Amino acid sequence: LPAKETFGFQAEAAQILDLMANSLYxxxxxxxRELISNSSDAIDRxxxxxxxxxxxxxxxxxxxxxxxxxxxxxxxxITIADNGIGMSRDEVIGNIGTIAKSGTAExxxxxxxxxxxxxxxxxxxxxxFYSAFIVADRVTLTTRRAGLPADExxxxxxxxxxxxxxxxxxxxxxxxxxxxxxxxxxxxxxxEHRLRSVIKRYSDHIGRPILLCGxxxxxxxxxxxxxxxxxxxxxxxxxxxxxxxxxxxxxxLAHVHVKVxxxxxxxxxxxxxxxxPYDLWLPQSLQGVRLHVQRxxxxxxxxxxxxxxxxxxxxxxxxxxxxxxxxxxxxxxxQAMDHIRSSAVKRVLKLLKDMADGEPEKYATFWKxxxxxxxxxxxxxxxxxxxxxxxxxxxxxxxxDVSLADYVSRMKEGQDKIYYLLAPxxxxxxxxxxxxxxxxxxxxxxxxxxxxxxxxxxxxxxxxDKRLQSVAQGPPDFGDLEDAADKEAAEQxxxxxxxxxxxxxxxxxxxxxxxxxxxxxxxxxxxxxANEAETEFALAQRLRGTGL
Length: 548
Ligand code: ADP
Ligand code: MG
Description:
With about 550 residues, the protein is α+β, with helices and mostly antiparallel strands. About 35% of the residues lie in helices and about 20% in strands. The strands form 3 sheets. Strands 1-6-5-4-7-3-2-8 form an 8-stranded mixed sheet, with helices on one face. A 5-stranded mixed sheet has the order 9-10-13-11-12, sandwiched between helices. A 5-stranded mixed sheet has the order 14-16-15-18-17. Helix 1 (about 10-20) runs parallel beside helix 4 (about 105-110), helix 2 crosses helix 6 (about 190-205) and helix 9 runs parallel beside helix 12. It is elongated, with a radius of gyration of 30 Å. The protein starts with a strand and ends in a 5-residue tail after the last helix. Molecular chaperone. Has ATPase activity. It comes from Actinomadura monticuli. Belongs to the heat shock protein 90 family.
């Protein structure tokens, strides 16, 4: 056997280890949740590989999947062992010594910010294995990859201080065993009762049996919650499951749980969180919806299971039709997946609609956290545009939290358009001269101040049969609200000021597209209007701070 080799951790890994060892004080016991969740993933990956590689992993004994947790009071150790897929030597070095994960830098930043020392961040950033060093000052991991011979076992050891060693060892059974040598002062964990309650609290819904101290009765439920009949489940069960799934400390706002049988068979259990995660606006969110195939966890994905504008949705999709070795490519193509995805989108939009109709206060919370994300669906998802349009909320010259349906129900007699003003800040919007004539006529105008609103109104020319009309673009247009006297007065004014308009045009030649007399203003002498070629949002931004 080759001698022990020593390696240095990558700089970021070393920083994370240092953090684990020295600055985490709350909920230290979450290390167990992280290691158990790795074991559970490893068991799922083994089940997939047994089918995919019958000549290697397929030759492994068909023992019952299980995760064992034990402790030794004398030695001061806790051991977590699984019969999952295990790791080869290269995998150990690649997966444990290297952190090439998108979340790492963010994690370090978040940890040095106001949430310093908050263990809740660990699960959210996927740096779970290292959490062993919260309570241990030495960790030994022994593993053997499914399908490799017994003499290709690997032992990895580290004190979490910049280096680790790797050596090749004999190991008959596949899977991974992790031994934590507890730091001084962590002895209270060496207690069956204590470990049981930690497992119950954080890992109850792990779909594999967790066996404690040689006992054959699992500590956890060990069944997939979503596969249980709805009638058996209480609100609390869903909330517990959600918190274990996401590591969120808050309960979700709402969930939808459906089993679909028919041409395709699948179960959806999807949640709307009550708070936006830190990474909602990063180019790549880290947590998404988890895809299972017949209870076996296959992958977690943020783009292909849910459209981008619903990226805040968490939960599980379990399909009976997809192959176990489903690839990310299959996710993009296949009919079964297309069907499931579109059904999932419909269910989520329906869930939101029911919330908006039945629990407006809850919906206001949702809108505050995720409204700007949902709006992206108007340009991005034409198939559901009408449903999304009904979920939108705006501020107007008269009310907050205005839906388009509210607006329409309050329209003036003779009004046939939904008027809006795009402006980068609500205070700018409220004082805009474009609103003067609308105030005069007591017409409500929606004030759109979000950067994405520009795309929303471009993609949504109509709501029901009402056109959305900017108050700042093109010539003023009151439709049927304009009476004959107004028109006559406007024409008269046009004639009266033709000379002045001619002079102004000459003077502004090359700088203004057109100059015209308007009835849109009541107290300001003049205003600048965007033409069709320039979006008014861009115009407003360009004019910001120029005094116009
Ligand atoms: P994550 O689980 O988010 O990938 P972790 O830090 O928890 O991050 O684990 C890093 C990697 O180490 C895992 O992705 C996996 O490849 C490997 N690993 C950890 N624990 C085990 C285990 N018990 N069996 C097999 N592989 C494991
Ligand atoms: Mg993990």
